[in-house]
Amino acid sequence: MSDLPFIRCLGCESTVFDPTRAACPGCGRCPVCGSRRFKTEVKTCPDCELPYCDCCGRCPQCAGLRYSEIITPCECGHPLDAEKLADLVRYEAAVGAIRRPTPWGCILAALTLSAVVLLLIYAWKG
């Protein structure tokens, strides 16, 4: 277990887990890029044959985590990329997360595109 605070999954939005895990135990996705990290979906614990919790991905008997066999880093570099890991903890911590910075460039581009479309519509009708 790491000393980092636990994070909330961006994929299933319900699971809280250690940010250094390669995949969310709830949905099996990479917590940074969201790509599916499993080949086949796992519903039951292989040791206990009990269904995993839909929310946290734990076995109710042995407390094992679903998708714990996924240990290789994701194509995006998680969990080995220290900068991505720090951003993940900063913005997605289950307790004490800060808001992500507003993407002003994207907002400005969307407003500009909207203005151009409105001008084209006005010119076409007028």
UniProtKB/TrEMBL annotation:
The chain crosses the membrane at residues 104-124. Keywords: Membrane, Transmembrane, Transmembrane helix. This is DZANK-type domain-containing protein. It comes from Gimesia maris.
